[in-house]
Zn(2)-C6 fungal-type domain-containing protein
Amino acid sequence: MASRHTDNIDNSQNQQSNKRKISRLNPVSTRHSISRKRAVIACQPCRAKKAKCDNQRPTCSRCQAQESECVYEDATANVSFDRGTLATINRLDYLIDLAESDQSSQSPLVEGLSTRSWQSTDKDVIDEAAHHNIHNRQLEINARGATHVHPSAHLTASTSDSDTRLSFASCEDILKWPVFGEGQHLENIEALFTDPMLANDVTDNQSMTAGESQPLFVGTQNIVDCEPDLLENDITSLVEYFLVQVHTKNPILDPTSLRKMAANIVQFGLQWDGPTCLVLLTCALAVVSSPFAQLSTVTGSEVSGGSLEDTSKYGLAESYYDAARKRIGLLGNGSLATECYFWLGVYEMYSLRPFQASISFNRACVTFQISTRRTFKSDEASLVDAHACRQYWSCLKSEHEISVELQVPSSGLTAQNYTQSFPSPPENNDDDCSSMVASPTLMCYTSPAPFMERLPQIEASWYYYLADIAARRILQRVMDTFYTETVSSQLGNIPKMFKAAEELSRQIEQWYQNLPAPVKFDYDTPAECELAYHLQARAYELQERTYRPFLFHLLNHNLDVATKDRFKRLAHQHSAVCTKLIRHWDIRHRHHGTWLMVRQSFNAALLLVAAQRSGRSGLTHEQYEEAVNLSMSTIRYWEAEAADLKASRVILESVVSQT
């Protein structure tokens, strides 16, 4: 008996234990699970008798057995769906709305579908939407597998009006013009932007197997693999050289704080932190930069050597850059991280890595938005952080420059509208040069001058910085005016186009007239000062962007005689500006906008070819040949550092030979 009693107790405990285990192994989630056992609505006879209804149509089983009339309240709306199915449909409806909200305004088909109820059981509507989505997805897959297609190409292909921005905003778009044939050159240049076999990045090349790609820096100093060999004692002098040669174009750092960071590295060595990352980036920029000199890429009858041959310490700069990148992942989301991402992008622009630079500038903009979100105030008077204001404008300006050319999405920093005020200079300018000392190491990079002698340079730096921000604002107006409307919209209101061009030209002239003396330049004479030289190029760019739409319409659309004459005059002005841009960027000096300047030269040459082929350039044949040959020389000088530039030169030679 005792044994049987014990067995009963053990069995009872085992059953309870099993129940507990089952309850633990099969938890019920009430957040996303929905019961789907019962139908939505029973028939009226079953509801009246409170009996279970199996919802069979047209007669449920109970009514059929009793030979009674089976009636449902609603014979059309969702009666075949239970509660779980309806919930699933609602969730799908929400996701579809999110996916198609940005496309509905561009695609007539999506717009038509958005007005229909996705909870309807209309099979035709569902089939039509599914076919449309599959068609778009197939186009995207084909684009990835073959050549690059603009993300909105499949949305505008069925419409008669193409987006103007997609017609003449970049050199890839210009190559699509009918005057160049079928655009067969387009895939050649776009494919090289992201071709891993032609990577411009040292780390990308090192990750490939032997024989796939040659190292980029052939014949230059070997890259230092060991960080202690980065010559920590030279960091102080490199930081000073950076402040003289690079920081003057984007004065967003506090020189005193930067010097303290450098001193800590000299004393304690390289650390794995943000300050070390920032200092390493400034050293990389100092090594790769050089004093301004107007040296042409053509010397006499012979073409000069390539850009890598003229940058003997490129390998050392890459060592500092690589060491800084190892610390990027350790950054937070504060002001220091914003500066590191920004100067990382600046170095990548110096070394002609445009897509990597666009990513770095995007990260800088996003990090800035995160770091200032807590302190952001809508009241302009409350924005007292001058340092953050300088970060904002530098990040915004740099991202805008590269995104206009590459046509990549922006970070949304413009929409934040952090401030409309121009940045203000630091209160104590002495910090920029007060600690310059004539050490033997520093003399290898620069010849420091007394502060009073360098004061005009510091003032000119801030004049340039503010003038360049003002020019960026005008460029944004140009893009918003001419590069966002459709072709039919512009041609439908030609007087508005002329009025807009006159207003933009007036703003450009007003900007030029208000330039301070230290950065003033003459339109027809190359400026001798580096800062004025860059502003002069900015003025040419503004004019070229303003006149380009008129050349596009003149070459590609039928216009009446009076309108054609006015367009022709503006097209002649455009050709004159293009020749100025090409001559202006025939220079071997490396800077933040080097890749952009080569692309501008290529753009200008393509536009001259298009105008010359149609007889609308207003240039003599000798002027035309001189300009395009000079552009090819400029591209050839820099092409060893960027595969897309080499493709640009080959394409330009091809289209010129066919003219």
The mean pLDDT is 74. The two ends are 112 Å apart (CA to CA).
